[in-house]
Every structure is written in structure tokens, then in C-alpha cells.
Amino acid sequence: MTETVSGAHQASASEGDGVRIERVFSTEGVHPYDELTWERRDVVQTNWKSGETVFEQRGVEFPESWSLNASTIVTTKYFRGAVGTDAREWSLKQLIDRVVSTYRKGGEDHGYFATSADAELFEHELTWLLVNQYFSFNSPVWFNVGTQSPQQVSACFILSVDDSMDSILNWYKEEGFIFKGGSGAGLNLSRIRSSKELLSSGGTASGPVSFMRGADASAGTIKSGGATRRAAKMVVLDVDHPDIEEFVETKAREEDKIRALRDAGFDMDLGGADITSVQYQNANNSVRVNDEFMRAVEDGTGFGLRSRKTGEVIETVDARELFTKISKAAWECADPGLQYDDTINDWHTNPETGRITASNPCSEYMSLDNSSCNLASLNLMKFLKDDDTFDAALFAQAVEVIITAMDISICFADFPTEAIGKTTVDYRQLGIGYANLGALLMAMGLGYDSDGGRAMAAAITSLMTGTSYRRSAELAAVVGPYAGYARNADAHRRVMRKHQAANDAVRPLHAADRDVHELATQAWAQVQTLGETNGFRNAQASVLAPTGTIGFMMDCDTTGIEPDFSLVKFKKLVGGGSMQIVNQTVPRALTKLGYQAEQVEAIVEYISEQGHVVDAPGLKPEHYEVFDCAMGARALKPMGHVRMMAACQPFLSGAISKTVNLPESATVAEIEDIYLQSWKLGLKATAVYRDNCKVGQPLADAKAKKADTAAETPVTEVEKVVYKPTRKRLPKSRVARTTSFTVGGAEGYMTSGAHDDGTLGEIFLKLGKQGSTLAGVMDAFSIAVSIGLQYGVPLETYVSKFANLRFEPAGLTDDADVRMAQSLMDYVFRRLALDYLSFEDRAALGIYSADERQRHLETGSYEPPVEDTGTSDQLIGDLSAPDAKAAPTVEVDAPDAEEVAVAKPAPAGAHTSAELLEQITGTAVDSPLCFTCGTKMRPAGSCYVCEGCGSTSGCS
């Protein structure tokens, strides 16, 4: 899409004339904003726990195509200026213009563009990509760029600390400034002497763990008082540090303290009044292991812990025992994770400058000490074509624009310390990545934990990084390579060859990933040619970040490299209210897999009721894997997460922010295996989380709470009272109806009789062409149900028990209201529900007539139209008003006419998809509550993100 004067693009870059821009996304003569329909919205945000309004701004302007959730998060997080004043931003146009105009000016000031026309076209292309949600910069760009604040554009920082008090106190100060700017930092404490070594004065050193306490308290304070989000930090210690065992067990011991205090009656939930008394809770901890240690673990041999001052071995430990202690601590409290030192440094482009010793808080950015990285992520679903193939060429063209913009930002950026500023300007580390991988694979009919899914993910990641380095080499011809390149040229080119070799090792499995891989192969060939001639503008190009807040800004279904969280989502509506909807990727995937419209509708309706696909009517078991999610009945196996990371890691400059989730029943041995396999598969870092391992996580398992309450309630002897049901017999002459039906080719008749008040009192079932035995069984079943109804068993109970019961015959029916049935019983009781239950009772069971389903697709409501409410146009128009009383419409972005959407009002207690999943499945989502709005967060990479307000516990 863009064109330089060097290498494969024959122009004048070699003469330093600048980059020429080719129009790809925007339309000539039309501003990107003018291609969209805009509307005004009111953003009011409430803390669901306290009922307090925490934010309010009315009349903000966004494109119609942006969801309410996206506009809410952008308004509350990224609009600058005091709320209620004229200085406050009120339109997305103002926000994007503030940022893009700064990028354009930076490019012009530093000689990036060949002409002013190229600069203007760059501005339009960048604006088009942002306003259409094709990508987003990381949060600090939106916070700071174009404002009076320092122009901090980086989300990720790596610090350093030496073995001196001055350096340690400086560490506290630098972290504080980084947290204040809305970013996160990580560092390695291994230079600090251990508590087993002497000071020059003759005393014993405190050791790094003691100094972690002060840094943790500082981060906790800034977390409570910061204006943008909570602090995020990473602390790393080398496995050969003499204090490694103390470091490993630090957070696990604190977890024991939390249990003791909780049992004593203190409020130890996250955000609780007493949790601040617990230490080391504001950082992620990681152990930096090397190949020597991992081989010792495999062999069961000893491993030496070394003095920080002399490097000599001062203690030998059993490597396997230490590895088990690391895994046991992770089993108990999810810390520490592992970082694989030799793998990390084998892919390091700047080893002559220094080793990579640490990472940012979420583990995706790994580079030199005292450095930073600005991130940007692409929305992969935007590149899915109508034929469900990935538009690799368009994706590569977007990457070129974005990499150009990201490099320009380093020219005008401010940095929290002089050392970080110098390293970043000299090495220009970038972190392009993506979101929505899980949704993309599902839409393409590929399982996340499948060879096809991994092949596609690898090809896309390879294309992204190959295109990025090609663009970096082209930029080097225009504005020069990074300052540290000459010193590290051989090493940098060696890593480029490693990436190319990894790309050559990918084996495409189908035409879709073969096309992407071919473009990636071409990009890597150009990287070698252009890099040899021009060098590279950037020491690093790509990472896979959590994409928490910016993922919501782009309306992504899934974050980063993650699979889908769940198949059923919570959706807020512009007109007020909320709905429970089935992820729109599901019907698209079912159509891709060859299911017909009637089958798709039945499967989607089943998912709406159950939250999963197990036993969905007509769905082939071999297709279950396509719909596997992070949570629920078909939750992905832990190694499925590891294998996906391993497929993508060889094509990333940095690493991957991702946590491997394990069930509560997982063992220490399973965590050991995950850590060991991650090393063998070439990952740079691995973090794990076992459900319910943290005492402070607020859970929502109502059944467990009820059981606990019952167990604690003292039993008192009381007089036993027996209540005997009374039979209500039908009158001699009663109203009855007979229904003929066909289920999967089997014919039958059902006769139902009602009491005078219209309630069902009896049923008789007769099947055609059945033998005497089956006829007798059906007669007995009919009598049993009829007597139960007359003794007061509610019809709803029978429907809930027998609807979705699965056995043959099953399949298509001749009933327009019940298109698919999983069995005769499933059909019979759905038909009875439609004939005898009220709309409200049926809706609670997820059973609707054909007319009601059609009405929902047209108006967003299953209920019959309300009389005297005006025309349909007036009704829909009223929804934009905050006080509208009409039922809200459901926004459905259908890729084709056959797509089916199932939506219903969300349960009153659900405010996010995590809370909705808990209510549907009756199981708990083990995540903290959001400090801002009080709703349950959900995992995003190695962090958590709030779907309600966009707050994150991480750094993206």
C-alpha cells in the first residue's frame, strides 16, 4: 500500500526523498468521517455494587456502527478535558484528529514523506483505519498525544536496578512516574545481593525480596489514587539467585495470610477494607530460568545458586525440588510464572548492547533494560472476506501504514526518564500485534486447538512481522536505521534469518492459510534483501499484547491471542437496557461448516439456552472443537493454549501476553508439565492460573454459597409437618386439542385436555407404525404425566426436564414453530409449552413461536407489538432518547441474510459477559471485580479487563 524509493518498491527512497503513500482504504475526494453515519449518545456509567453514578457525559458523537460499549469506554477513558466544561472532548472525531494530526506533523517534521500530498494521504488512511475500527494504538497514545501532558506513547517499560541504595530508591521513583502516566513497568532484581551475602560494611544484605515490599506499597498507593487505571508491574528474579526460594514462596505465604485473616472475619476480597494489609499483591512475579536449569530438572541433578558479587556457587540445590516448589507456588496463587532466558536471548537482535533480563508487566515486551515499547493492535475480523477467507494483501497494507505511524511517534514522544528516552530513541522498539484471533478462527470454521487453527494463526503472525520488518527496512532507507543497528547488524540479520526459517517450516493445511503463508514468504524474502542494503529502522517490531481496553474500542469479540471467552454475550443497547445474545460468529461458523438455515437457527437457540454446544440439535460432534471457549462446558484444555502460543511465538519479536487457565482440580504435576512443555516448544514466557486458587477473588457460584450457608446453619429440632398433595381431576367434558406431528420422519399424534381455566390436565400420545411394546410404554408415560399434572406438578417443570432430551428419532419436524427436535419428548413438551404456557413463562425457558422469532429479527423484541405506540419508524427513533420506554432494538451485524441471531433480555443480575455466563451455567468465573464499576472482569492475556468500563489490571 505504501511505496518507498528502495528495494522492491523502485522509487527515490535511496535518495532520501521520503515515503510515497498509495491510497487503499480511504476514498478520493471524501473525508473518512463523511463515509459514516454519526449519532449522539448519552454515556452514564454506574457502579453496580454501590448504585453510585461514577461518570456522566451526554450528547457524545460516535458512528452508528460503534457499539454502546465501545463509545462508553472511549468517552470515559480517552476523551480529555474536565467533564462539564467546554474544554471536554465530546466527539470521536476530536479524539482521532488530536492523535492523527500529531502523527502527521511528526512525520512531516522528521522527513518521512516525499510530498505534502503524501502526508495528507497518510493522515486520511490512518484516520480511516481508526474510525472504522481496523486497529487501535495503545492506551497512552489516546491519553496523552496532542494534549498539554507529556507525549508519552508507550504502554510498556523495562527498568533496571543495581546493588545500591541509590539505585533501589530511584527504582521506586521511576515506577511511580510510569504508573502515573497510565503505563506499567517490569524489572529484574537479580543484581541485588542476596540475604545470604555480606555487605561491604560487614553486615548482612537485606536481599531483593525485602525491597519488593516497599515497591509494592508504592504501587498500591498509586493504584488507589491514579486517574487512569491501577498500576501494573512485573518483578523477575533469576533462578540461580540465592534468594530464589524466598522469592518463589513470597506470594504463596501471603495467600495463607489472606486465608487466616478471612477466617478471622476480616474483609479480604479484592478491594476489601482489609486486603491492603497483605503484601506483594500489586506485581506479577516471574522466575527467569535458563537451559542449564531446565536440563537439570529433566535429569534430576543439582543446580548451583551463585553469589551476585563474585558469581561463585554458594549453594547447590536439587533442581527438580526447586522446580516443584515453583510449580506448587503457582498452583497455590498463580505466581510465579516462568521466563525462558536462553530462548529469549537467542532471538535478541541487540546482544552486543546487552542481554534481555526482564519484561513488561504482561510479559509480551522483552528488550533492553531502561527501554520502552509503544503498541498497536489490528482487528483481525475486519480482514475476513465475505467468502470467509482472510484478506492477506489488505492486512499487509494496513500493517505498513501502522508501522510507519508507530515509528513516527518515537520522534515526538516524551519519556519518564532520560535513560529510557535514550534507549528507546536509539533502538526504536515497536510492538504491533492483533486482537480477535479466537473470533476469526471460529468464523472460518477452525478450532482454536486444532492443526488448522494453529496453521492459520502462524501464517497471519508471520505475515504481520515479516511485513513490519520489510517496512522497517524501507523506512531505514528514508530516515536511517536505528542508532544501535551498526553495532548489532550481524545479530539482527541472524534473527531475521531465524524468522524466515521458521516461516519456511510452516505447513499450510488448506487454501485459506496457504494464501496467507505465500505472502508471508514473499515478505521475509524482501526483509533479507532490503535489510542487507538498508539496515532496519526498528530493533523490534511485534508482540502479542492483552488488548484489553483497546479491544473493546474496536468492538472485538476476543482479545489478543485468546480464544472466545464464551458463546453467549452480554450486550448493552443504545436506547437503554441490555440483551443476552449468542456471539454472532457462531451462525457464521455454522454456515461455513455447511449447516442449513433451519439447523443453524435450532443450534443457535440451543446455545442461547445452554451457553454451550454439547448435544446441540443436529450439530456433529466433530464440529464441537470449533466452538470451544476459554470458559464453560467445552473449555479448552491447558495444552491447547500452550500449543497456540508455540505456533505464533517464532514470528514475534517479543513474546505473548497470555495465561494458561487450569481447572481447580489441576495438580502441581500438571503445572510442572505445562512449564516444561512450554520450554521445549520454544515459548519465551508462560503464566498459569488455576481456578479459585486466590482467596481474594470474589466468586459468584450461588450454589456453593447456599451450600456453605446451609452447612453453617445450626439444626434445631422441630415438629415435622407433612403436606399431602390434592388431585384436581378434569371435568367429564373438557376442551381438548389433537396435534399431528412428524419428527425425523416418525409420525405421531398428541391429544391434550385442559381444565375449565385453560390449564393443561392430561396428554395422550400415539405413534404411527409402532409395535405393541412401544405403544404400551407411551400410554404409561402419558398416564404418569397426566396424573402429575393433576396433582399440581407445573407444566414448566415437565418442559424444563424433557425439552432438549436427546434420542432417536430426531431432526426436522413439520411444525413451523418447532423446526428441529432432538427427540419425540423434546418436540412434545416444546409444543405443549407453546400451547399452554404464557409468553413470560415460555421466554424464561427460551421457547418462542415462529412469529415471535420473526418479530425479534425485525424489531429486536419477541413480544407482540404494543398498541398505540406509533409507527415502527417512530418507535425505533425514540430509542435514542434516554427516557425511551419502548423495548430496545437489538443491533445485529449480519454478514448475510441467512445469519440467525438469538437475543433475549439479559438477567437482572448480569452486567457483563462474565456475570451472564455465571448465571447461565451456574458456575463461577474466577476473576476480580472492577474497582471502577463493580462488575466482574474477565481474563485478557496475563491481566484482567472490565467489559463494563474498560478498566484493566495490565498495561495495554
Describe this structure as you would to a colleague.
The protein is α/β, with parallel strands linked by helices. It has three domains: 2-153 and 358-550, no CATH class; 160-346, Anaerobic Ribonucleotide-triphosphate Reductase Large Chain (Alpha-Beta Barrel), CATH 3.20.70; 736-897, no CATH class. It has 29 helices and 26 strands. Helix 11 (392-412) packs across helix 14 and helix 14 (451-479) packs parallel to helix 20 (638-648). The longest helix has 29 residues, at 451-479. 51% of the residues are buried.
What is the beta-strand fraction? 5-15%
Largest sheet: 10 strands, mixed
What is the total tally of β strands?
Answer: 26
Domain count, please report it.
Answer: 3
Individual helix count? 29
Oligomeric composition of the shown chains: single chain
> Can you give the helix content as a percent range?
25-40%
Form type: globular
The low-confidence parts are 1-16, 224-229, 697-723, 866-901
Mean pLDDT: 84
Task: Give the termini distance in whole angstroms.
Answer: 27 Å
Protein name: Vitamin B12-dependent ribonucleotide reductase
Family: Belongs to the ribonucleoside diphosphate reductase class-2 family.
Domain Ribonucleotide reductase large subunit C-terminal: 154-689
Catalytic activity: a 2'-deoxyribonucleoside 5'-diphosphate + [thioredoxin]-disulfide + H2O = a ribonucleoside 5'-diphosphate + [thioredoxin]-dithiol
